Amino acid sequence: MARILIIGAGGVSQVAVHKCAQASDVFTDICLASRTLSKCDKIAAQLKRPIRTAKVDADNVPQLVKLIKDFRPDVVLNVALPYQDLHIMDACLETGVNYVDTANYEPPDVAHFEYKWQWAYQERFKKKGILALLGSGFDPGVTNVYTAWALKKHFDTIETLDIIDANAGDHGQPFATNFNPEINIREVTAKGRYWEKGKWIETDPLSVKKTMDFPDGIGPKKIYLMFHEELESLTKNFAKKGLKRARFWMTFSDNYLKHLEVLQNVGMTRINPVKYNGQEIIPLQFLKALLPDPASLGPLTKGKTCIGCKIKGTAKDGRKREYYVYNICSHEESYKEVQSQAISYTTGVPAMIGAMLVATGVWKGAGVFNMEDFDPEPFMKKLNKYGLPWTEVFLK
Ligand code: NDP
After folding, report:
1. Which of 14, 34, 59 has most ligand 1 atoms within 8 Å of its beta carbon, as the pocket-test mutant?
2. 8: Cβ below 6 Å to ligand 1?
3. Same domain (yes/no): 64, 191
4. Is residue 194 part of a domain?
5. Computed from CA positions of residues 66, 67, 71, 74, in that sequence, does the dihedral angle turn out positive or negative?
6. How confident is the model over 238-293, as pLDDT tens digits?
7. pLDDT tens digit sequence for 88-106
8. How far apart are CA 396 and CA 225, in angstroms?
């Protein structure tokens, strides 16, 4: 019996709201609030049970506080954009409500994300006796839980961790991003970074690549080394457990990279303002307005995603072990169930599960937590139950 306030009404929200509505035994009352009320109403109209909708500017703390006081949720699920994280955390602090999100804070004017801004809330959340769960999507999110699960069940020490995110789907568009284009392009065009023996090593954007053979008929795909936010918390938490190297890889098609290179070369991915016809515009935001809305890709996308962790280390019996745990998600099946493609599905389901574990007190505590801080077992069970089943392979 829990009340949930979901903020943001984009692609990820579409899935999270459907999944919370399906879990009516836990989420008895749902309020969906976002900047554009019509988007909330559109999602609400697809559901089999009534939910409340509201208009809120999540950058406006007093507005958020008013809504929270009025709805009285047990948990606030933030599936707006990373720019809103701190404002929503401030509103949760003021009202004493638990907080869950899927992406770490990013200042709007610098393409840079890290946990320091949200970790800085640790003492205030502790003092207030409330919990903030950070990064409850797939990556970050499930990938952190997979790593914690591997250590709990199969390894004495984890030495290397490779998180690999493959989207083998095809939407048939010349160029489109699978989630918010601005956030996606900022992430992809940033320098790569991986962690080895306690140090961060920087690489030029998308300059390190290799080919990996993916399971379930996906086959060989090129994967590119990138920095991804879960590396920050995982290296901090697992270095003391023997971790020596952690990397993140993602697939990109040659076509996606060709378009991105041209857009970058002509300055369309810049995030600093330029003057145009007496008006200031930010090229990347203008580009977002031109690109297909990720939500519109749902009915067009065919194929699968495969996201997982390859881990090497020492098993509990002292032998060397190599292990791969992953999920396969079908774009078409996701669309059939919740009218969204698999990228939103693989984020929206863990967002709901994280909120559920917090709302029901299965994951509890006071302070700011990353996913690997908690027992992975209940989360792993719920992944199987709510549509993201996982497979384990012992490679050695
Ligand atoms: P969308 O752009 O589709 O949706 C964002 C939503 O937030 C929109 O409805 C938007 O409103 C709303 N919003 C933006 N600013 C405000 C504001 N000031 N006040 C209220 N609402 C606001 O993004 P996605 O659904 O693709 O992504 C949602 C989040 O999920 C992002 O933080 C993204 O980084 C994260 N993510 C995490 C992943 C993971 O695996 N961990 C993977 C993919 C995404 P409007 O429609 O009016 O613009």
Report:
1. 34
2. yes
3. no
4. yes
5. negative
6. 998 899 999 999 999 999 999 999 999 999 999 999 999 999 999 999 999 999 98
7. 999 999 999 999 999 999 9
8. 24
